[in-house]
Amino acid sequence: KQWYQRRVRDHWTWSEWEECVKLNKTDPNHPKPKFLKEVFLKLLWLTFYEKLKDVIPDEFVTLLPVKPGFNHKFAEITPENSLQAKCAKALIESIKNKEALDMMLGSLDPLPDGAIDGRELDPVYPEAKLEVVIQTILRVGCKSISHISVALNRFRDLIMAVMPNQDAKVSCLKITFSFFKTNHQLMCIMIEKYLNFQLIEPSCIVSWIFSPYMLPHFDRLYLWQMLDTTIKFCIKRCDRIKLELEKSKVKLNDKKEQEAGAPDPDIAEKRKQLVQAAEEEVDHYVKLLEDAERSQKEVFLIVVQRFIMILTDHIVRSEQESRYTQTLWFRCTRDRLRQTLVKYRREVKRYMVTLQTLLFTPEIEPKILECFTQFKGYIA
Length: 380
Known about the structure:
Helix content is 69%, strand content 0%. The chain has 380 residues and is an all-alpha fold. The longest helix has 56 residues, at 265-320. It is globular. The two termini are 48 Å apart.
């Protein structure tokens, strides 16, 4: 059981970590027990729960995360979910029978097309149907990562049919997070899957991460891993399209040279058609790149805007209630803003004028504006 100490620092012993166990009982938000909790959670992504539990000393078991599992809301029929649970059962039967999309959607007809509890949604989307579909598909595919990929690919049309707008996509992420609430590793993987299968746009994921629903998770590393995944997806997509655009331009130049050296009119006409096709391919990639870069800029602006909003809201609320402003939560969140600016400085530098004009204005809180001022000094 000296396994952990050998991998951190050789002279540390488990006895020197016992303070974390005591602090966890009196102050669970203290940095020391939170550090160990995050380390154990990360280690859990590399091994089985029982193995990790057996490796650490017994007194540290209280710092372990909850055993990973799944939260299928409709596994049992209760008075509160009876209609949705019955529709979920009917949808599973429809899936087993390999019925067409219309038949699967028909199994959801008893559910309302609006909110689950009858409240007004603007814009309107079938919240109750969406919850049944996402919960059911995740239940079908939760055996393994490959099963999830197959399920998302197979039922993509079904998901899109009940997810018509951005609000529905944010709700889909909330439902997914509820399903994997004790399995954060798979939730991080689901973010990748939703992006790769083009089911949810990066801007929707950012909006969900910074929603009030996720504020209690701001001190958890898995939340920021999901944000990193989303930002890196945008960056890699732009880089990939740029590479394809360069290849298509080289191809176009080659076709033009071949056209110029055509020995007779018939061959010249054929090569002219090839040049036109190559030009259309270049135009296609130019449009794709414009869309991808616009999406990437939107994501960065939303990220920074939401950071400013939640930090400002914290300061205002604290001052109104005469509470200490510089809490651990505030400092950690502000440092995440700093980290995001520095980590993606190559991309952020392109949006400096927009950021300074629209977001980091002199009117915002000095404690927040300081992050941008320091960043400008860093990249100068």
